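FAQ

Q: What does a record look like?
A: Structure on top, sequence underneath. For example:
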């Protein structure tokens, strides 16, 4: 990334609590080999090394996925002698390569911190939550299950704890607790105002209730990923702004691809004209139902690329000059 980005590029990333992440992954990627023969998350965790084979495609989702996404070896046993050393090396590499690490559980606070780091306005960081599950596909975890996850994903848990602590130190040094509370309140007021303006019924709905097929999020596994309906009768300028905020990530990246590579996009559209509608996400985007497999292949490819580096470089989110308000994309 550094080879193609300007020298003054600002790099940041965001971490999610590995306990919540594991519950989500088990639902969303239920069909991966590590999971598909298990009856429950507890069943997998009780026999984790028996169920988990690191050499099998897509099994990386089941173990230390945070470490994997940053380019590190995720196959470290909870009781490994070098666990602490690996943790220290991973943390040092992340701190070297990233200017800021945010925390998903404190997303609004993270946006305020990002705002201050980049001298942005509230309008620049207002967002709607995307790629989020409905409540009926969420499963509360027992405390014992949470502890099993922390042991199984010991590397992830240690990385998360470190950056959760450093996040609040950044808040104290850049913003201050009282100002953070005020600005979070202002941000949420702005989000509510924007939701009332943009969204029909003011919030997220299940995919079966989304009217515009081009705004339906990709559905995979047992998760029910919600989306939004736009308010009717929006003026053109407001509709464009609102639509950007609620467009699912696959459709959004497809639009960016079309803007950046119009000739390749036109060629792809021509090639997929005869593809069955069941394999296409929508006429608008032309994104096929193989998007998840493509994502998995990309992760595996990047993991192999970085596996032989001693000081492994983290995969980054490079910040380009900002456009309109950003949309918030999360793991369901």
């Amino acid at each position: 990334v550094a080879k193609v980005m300007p020298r003054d590029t600002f790099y940041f990333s965001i971490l999610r609590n590995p306990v919540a992440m594991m519950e989500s992954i088990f639902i969303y990627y239920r069909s991966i080999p590590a999971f598909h023969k298990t009856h429950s998350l507890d069943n997998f965790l009780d026999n984790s090394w028996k169920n988990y084979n690191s050499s099998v495609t897509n099994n990386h989702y089941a173990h230390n996925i945070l470490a994997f996404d940053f380019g590190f070896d995720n196959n470290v046993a909870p009781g490994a002698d070098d666990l602490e050393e690996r943790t220290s090396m991973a943390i040092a590499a992340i701190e070297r390569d990233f200017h800021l690490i945010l925390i998903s559980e404190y997303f609004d606070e993270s946006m305020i911190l990002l705002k201050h780091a980049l001298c942005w306005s509230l309008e620049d960081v207002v967002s709607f939550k995307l790629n989020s599950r409905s409540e009926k596909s969420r499963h509360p975890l027992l405390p014992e299950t949470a502890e099993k996850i922390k042991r199984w994903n010991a590397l992830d848990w240690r990385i998360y704890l470190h950056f959760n602590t450093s996040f609040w130190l950044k808040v104290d040094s850049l913003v201050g607790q009282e100002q953070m509370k005020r600005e979070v309140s202002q941000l949420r007021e702005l989000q509510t105002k924007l939701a009332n303006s943009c969204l029909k019924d003011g919030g997220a709905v299940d995919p079966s209730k989304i009217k515009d097929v081009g705004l339906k999020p990709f559905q995979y596994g047992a998760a029910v990923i919600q989306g939004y309906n736009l308010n009717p009768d929006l003026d053109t300028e407001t509709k464009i702004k609102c639509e950007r905020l609620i467009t699912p990530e696959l459709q959004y990246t497809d639009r960016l691809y079309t803007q950046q590579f119009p000739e390749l996009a036109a060629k792809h559209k021509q090639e997929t004209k005869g593809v069955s509608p069941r394999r296409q996400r929508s006429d608008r985007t032309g994104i096929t139902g193989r998007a998840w497999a493509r994502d998995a292949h990309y992760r595996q490819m990047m993991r192999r690329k970085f596996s032989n580096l001693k000081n492994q470089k983290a995969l980054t989110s490079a910040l380009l000059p900002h456009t309109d308000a950003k949309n918030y994309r999360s793991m369901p």
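Q: Is there anything notable about this one?
A: The CA atoms of residues 93 and 311 lie 7 Å apart.
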